[in-house]
Amino acid sequence: MEKAKKKIETDDRFEIRLSGSGGQGMVFAGMILAEAIGINDGKNVVQTQSYGPEARGGTSRSDVVVSSKDIYYPKPIKLDLLLCLTQESCDTYHQALKEDGLLIVDSDLVSQLPACEVHAFSFTQLARGRIGTPMVANVIALGTIAGLTKIVSKRGLSEAVQRRAPKGTEEKNLKALEMGFELARKKRGKKSH
Length: 193
Prior knowledge:
- Helices cover 45% and strands 24% of the residues.
- By secondary structure, it is α/β, with parallel strands linked by helices.
- It has one domain: Pyruvate-ferredoxin oxidoreductase, PFOR, domain III (Pyruvate-ferredoxin Oxidoreductase, domain 3).
- α2 (26-40) crosses α6 (154-164), α4 (123-131) packs across α5 (137-148) and α5 packs across α7 (170-192).
- InterPro entries: 2-oxoglutarate_synth_KorC, Pyrv/ketoisovalerate_OxRed_cat, Pyrv_flavodox_OxRed_cen.
- This is 2-oxoglutarate ferredoxin oxidoreductase subunit gamma.
């Protein structure tokens, strides 16, 4: 986690992949993250997406490339951060992660972990139990990413969520975002003790 923070502070290019299945909101999360980084935080950013032909259940991913300089190649080369909300996405993409990269998984849905440092959180269970819908697990994950790294500001992410959340869901999404920040605070607290 500390390696990822230091890398963000010193490197010109940071590559993120948000992955899961159709219906988990990976494209939505990628758009929020890119908007927060580019518009609110003033960095250069490119967001691309890929998903299977199925509307729900097929694989889905959103890639976000961030740099303080111009971005000439819009796709990730080797990931600095990988979020996996399904076992299939973890199995498929973990090899694209840099050796010192940050792997974050949903512990409710990813049980077979690769042999690397993994940060596991119960995104789906928390979303269902505390907010009443698993549909905001992606936003909890965004808050956790923001809290564990310095890639995006809390303010920038909150503003992007307010703008992008479907009408009538803003409050739930902001609550989910705050839950993600809290998960990161707890994780950082455990590391320092």
